[in-house]
Amino acid sequence: MNVSPTCLRQMRVDLSYVVVIATVFSVISPRCCLNVTRDDTQAKLNGSAVDFDSFREKFHRSYEVNSGEFHRRQLHFQNAAKRHAHLNSFPAAPQSAKYGINQFSDLSQKEFRDLYLRASADRAPLFPGLTTEGLPAKFDWRDKSVVAPVQNQEACGSCWAFSVVGAIQSVHAIGGSQLVQLSVQQVLDCSSRNEGCGGGSPAQALYWLKQTRVKLVPQSEYPYKAKRGMCHFFSQSHGGVALKNYTVNDFSGQEEAMMGQLVKHGPLVAIVDAVSWQDYLGGIIQHHCSSQHSNHAVLVVGYNAAGDVPYWIVQNSWGSTWGNEGYVYLKIGGNVCGIADSVAAVFL
């Protein structure tokens, strides 16, 4: 086929045009891809911002937008989301714990420890008794209407006082008296061996109550203020509940015996490692907990050994919106979170 010189010149121009266009596209296209990636990243960041806005609204955070505190809290919130992904990445056993956004998600881990994990544990002797035979497969003192509602210690390291008072008021009700919430503030203000919101030892509080025979008055007479104040004294004739005695034991390796103590004597005070509880939403904690750094006091009110994963039923003092309506479940066996390291029973 003969092609005229004019057509050849036109074809050369068209080919040059295609080469130029291809070259331009090869230069531009990476930038297009980069823009898409940047847009995706921005969308994720915007999603995080939306989540943070929802968090602030839900939990009534009032820090000013774009302030230094706002950006600091948002960073803690983003770090919390990374922790949740890690904690939830382990192979899920039946009824495994779930971790996610809660009221503590804008706190750094250090702030959380400094505010809420202020309990200390004295070394406890190993439990010398025997395992109780014929225990029920599950037992919950709440079913007997002798466990008071979940309380909120707020930004005060007073868990040690809440656990002790919770045990005393339950054992008082088990003895036939009406369930009355007793004053945590009285213990917070008056237990001289402890440091109020700065932390304390349940064992030291129990020792103080036994030695002084101080009567705990109802919470309505001595309300909680989430800060330490002057100790209010009451006359010996004033009504209240006095502690007669208590025991503190190490049940590690003997959690079945601990179950027997719970059934026999009432809710138990325990000191645990609760670092991972900052992110807890619900389910049975089976991992992510050591037994070497006890820092938080709680009240063990029951257990359930009837299912695939036996667990302790533990009342916390961080309000009813945390965890399982204020409760946390810990796997029985293996001393998860150090639940068996230092356990106190009270006697009235």
Describe the structure.
With 348 residues, the chain is an alpha+beta fold. The protein has two domains: 1-58; 87-347, Cathepsin B, Chain A. Helices cover 36% and strands 14% of the residues. It has helices at residues 5-58, 68-87, 109-116, 159-174, 184-190, 202-212, 255-265; strands at residues 98-99, 138-140, 215-216, 241-242, 245-249, 268-272, 280-282, 284-285, 296-304, 311-315, 327-331, 343-347. The strands form three sheets. Strands 2, 5, 6, 8, 9, 10, 11 and 12 form an eight-stranded mixed β-sheet that branches. It has a two-stranded antiparallel sheet with strand order 1-7. Strands 3-4 form a two-stranded antiparallel sheet. Strand 9 and strand 10 form a beta hairpin. The protein starts with a helix and ends with a strand. The relative contact order is 0.15. Residues 1-47 have low confidence and may be disordered.
The count of β-strands is: 12
Name the helicity range: 25-40%
CATH class of the largest domain: Alpha Beta
- Overall tally of structural domains: 2
Which fold name is given in CATH as the topology of the largest domain? Cathepsin B, Chain A
| Total number of helices | 7
The biggest beta sheet, please? 8 strands, mixed
Q: What is the assigned CATH homologous superfamily of the largest domain?
A: Cysteine proteinases
- CA radius of gyration is 29 Å
The residue ranges in which pLDDT falls below 50 over 5 or more consecutive positions are 1-47
Series of H and E elements: HHEHEHHHEEEHEEEEEEE
Beta content comes to 5-15%
Q: What structural category do the secondary elements indicate?
A: alpha+beta
- The average pLDDT value, as a whole number, equals 88
Terminal-residue CA separation: 114 Å
In the CATH hierarchy, the architecture of the largest domain is Alpha-Beta Complex
Query: What is the global morphology?
Result: globular
